[in-house]
Design goal:
Blueprint lengths: L11 H12 L1 H7 L3 H4 L4 H10 L1 H21 L3
Helix pairs in contact: 1-4, 1-5, 4-5
Amino acid sequence: MKTKDPLEGITLEKLLTILVEKYGWEYLGDRVRINCFLSNPSVKSSLTFLRRTPWARAKVEEVFLDYLAEEKRLGFK
């Protein structure tokens, strides 16, 4: 039996771009306290850091899963 991973097929760049468009850098910096979200944030610098830092990537993925759950709850997906 195959389970569907909600992150399957979503690149880290796409995930981060969606979160920035939906919530903005300030919100992300509040949820995940890392400098690349708090000081001169950019997708490029954030991707570099997140690819090298598994704990930070896991926290960002958690924020994205919360986003997906909220979208589903509101009936958008």
